[in-house]
Design brief:
The complex is a heterodimer of chains A (345) and B (169). In chain A, a hairpin with a 5-residue loop joins strand 5 and strand 6. Chain A has 345 residues and is mainly α. Chain A is globular, with a radius of gyration of 24 Å. Chain A contains 9 helices and 7 strands; from the N terminus they run ααβββββββααααααα. In chain A, helix 3 packs across helix 5, helix 6 runs antiparallel to helix 8 and helix 8 runs antiparallel to helix 9. In chain A, the strands form 3 sheets. In chain A, strands 4-3-7 form a 3-stranded antiparallel β-sheet, with no helix packed on it. In chain A, strands 1-2 form a two-stranded antiparallel ribbon. A two-stranded antiparallel sheet of chain A has the order 5-6. Chain B is an all-alpha fold and 169 residues long. Chain B is built from 3 helices and no strands. Chain B starts with a helix and ends with a helix. The chains are: A mainly alpha (345), B mainly alpha (169). Chains A and B meet through helix 2, helix 3, helix 4, helix 5 and helix 6 of A and helix 1 and helix 2 of B.
Chain lengths: 345, 169
Amino acid sequence: MDNFIKNTLFTLIFSAIAMFSYAGHDQENNADKPFNPAPTIMHHIADSHDWHFASWDERTHWSLPLPVILLSKENGKAGLDAFMSSRFEHGHASYNGFILNEENKIETVAGSGKELIIDLSITKNVASLMLSVILLLFIFLGMARRYKKNPGSAPKGVQSFFEPIIIYIRDDVAKSVIGHKYERFMPYLLTVFFFIWFNNLLGLLPGGANLTGNIAVTAVLAVFTFLITTFSGNKTYWGHIFWTPGVPLPLRIIILPIEILGMFTKPFSLMIRLFANITAGHILILSLICFTFLFKSVTVGIVSAAFAVFMNVLELFVALLQAYVFTLLSAMYFGSAVEEHHEAG
Amino acid sequence: MIFLAGSLITPEFGLLFWQFMIFLVILFILGKFAWKPILTSLKEREANIEEALNAAKKAKEEMQKLHADNDKLLQEARLERDKMLREAQTAANNIVSEAKDKATAEGQRLIENARAAINNEKQAALTEVKNLAANLSLEIAEKILKRELADEKAQKELVNEFIKEANLN
């Protein structure tokens, strides 16, 4: 069983490398033009309206079309447009007055009389998000069923893998950081930990979406942490922000704006940290792969592939680490919000 | 490149919307149907384990207490036995010495009796011997007299002697 997991993991990693390097072919057609890695890398990191796996040439792409949902106005009347992204033919065609621009975003065709209000398309990231949610539900609801079916029995299978992690988050993150009021924060901490970890790992899969490296996703997670912190703040917490105890009066007035700013910088740092770490990891691996096509050399190819493997393994660790860091820091913010009054802390 | 990177740090409204809705839903579902039962049963299991450990500890302590009690009981029994032995010994000694005393006294009494009896017998024997001696002397005297006074002459001489003696008075 162990061997099976190990083999699967290695196969996945190596196929990820293969996929990345294969995708690097995108720009190969114009042999005269020097290879520009930036668009290739950005293409892999950014969101898109189809789930792209590979391309043979300018016209042949292996990709999964995704639903496009648009709230729009036509001659002042609001309406909903829903169609598959394959209608755009990878940016080569317009549909219903909409077209993909160079940035792979939807725009209205000039003179079509349409006005785009909101783009609620199921993009690659949204699709990946839904997949990860299905995975999370499948694993953890199944696990919960086992706990309910065999109460008090020793953990088995997937249970014995995740149980120590759940206990670690409960004991060494929530209990030790928040204190005795930890229990009400457990559902959020566990959800956010496994959500980030799973999506970090899914992002490392071949063709995987860079979901946790997308600022919108990390922003929403940070907002959740911010809202929970703010709404569970007790008297001591607010007292600390608005009238910092143990500080001379004039200083309190200076500290006040800093403390208020601090309420927002904490979740902001959460947002940036996760986004930057995951995106940086992806860019690094993609850059290493791109070296091969920049130098057009077998030697560089071998060396950069070896480095990319190393980075990928490192990213597997970073995936766990960043999930842990986000959870731990969230727990610390919750802890400061519910901390009881203590003497001149 | 800068233009493209700019798009990286600009959140898309669509993704914000989906992420918010989906995360809210999964937070609710996992919180209610996964984390709650999992954490509850983990807590229960831990409580069970702790309870079992405590029970084992208690049983061990009880065992030790029982063991100590047994030892105490054994010690007491040993002491009791020693005491009983000692008492029996004393009683036996008493009986023996009493018996000895009694026997000595009885012996003494028997000896006294015997001595008294011997004395009596001795006196009786002596008396008999005396009587016998007296009789024998009388007989001897009678025989001597009979022989001395067998002839007339001797008888006359004796009578004369007596007369002579009587005349003197």
